[in-house]
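We emphasize that the prediction below concerns an isolated chain of 218 residues; any contacts that depend on oligomerization or on bound cofactors are therefore not represented. The input was used exactly as deposited, without trimming of termini.
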Amino acid sequence: MSANPSLVRTFQGELCPAPFPNEVFVLRRDGVQCELHGVQTRVKGWQARGALYLSNVRLVFVASKADESGLVAFDFPLCYIRNDKLNQPIFGCNNLSGQVWPAVEGGGPAGELPPHDYKIYFKEGGIGTLYHLYYTLTVRAKEAFEAAQGRRREVDEANPPDYVADLVSRAFVDPNDPSTVYLAQQQPVDESLRLSSGPRYAANYGQDEVYEPTGLRP
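Result of the prediction step, given as a C-alpha cell string:
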C-alpha cells in the first residue's frame, strides 16, 4: 500500500511503520516536510511536517497529524522511485525531489496510474548520513527491479538484512545530520509487531476522499 501503511509505536512512543517480513529500519529523521502531488485530498495534494523512516525496502513519511482526508503516512517503495534528485540550494534547506509510482493495484511502472511528484525538505540539519544510505539502498533496489524483468521477487531481495547490517556498521556519520541510525540488532519496535505478510493494496485508494485507517497496532 502507498497511503496509510500500518503504524505501530516505537519503544519511545513515536509512530513508526509496522515492519514487513525481513524489513530492517535504517534510520529515522525528524524535522521533515513532505509535499506530495496527485494524492486523494480535498486539494489533490498534501503538505505536512513529520518524520521520515528509511528501511531496506522503502521510505515512509509519517505526519505529525493527519490531514482532514485521513491521510497520515505514505510509502515510497525504493524500487518505485524515479528521477530522484538531491537539491542543495544556496538559500533554503536540502531537499529530495522526484516521482514515485503508487504501490496499489494498477500502480507501478507497468500500471496505468501516473506517478506522484514529491519533494522532501530537511528542515533541521544536514543529510550526509541519510543521503549516503538512501542512495546506496535505492540504487540497488532499482537495479534489482529492472533486472527482474517482470519476474516476481521478494521486496527485500535487493537489500537483504545482512547486507544492510554491514552497510550501517560502516556508514559515515555526519555530525551535522541529526538522523537516528538503527543497527540491525536494535530496531525501533518490538519484534512481535512485525507484519506477517508483505504490503496489501488499499481498496479505496484514488476512489474517495477518506483514507483507510492506518491500522495502528497496540
